[in-house]
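tmp note - Transposase
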Amino acid sequence: MSKKIVYPLEVKLEAIKLRKEGYSVKEIQKLLDIKSESQVYTWWYWYRDGEHHRLSQPIGKQYSNGLGPEGSSPEESSPEESLMIQPSIMANA
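out:
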């Protein structure tokens, strides 16, 4: 059984940026060496639906189950995450 791949936040943000610029999911997958197409779609849907905190949450540590990063909740991490996304991605809207 293979290990799950953990992509850094920078890769996720770059994938979202490229998607906003009109790149196809297949192109993004090849450019950023992402294993699965569905991963790009997942990140895009999280971004589109305003769930920015999910981009930085660890594997298997869902906020809804109270297992997110220590001492954090979506409400607490969302503003700082939004600040990271706003200048780099929203400027390209």
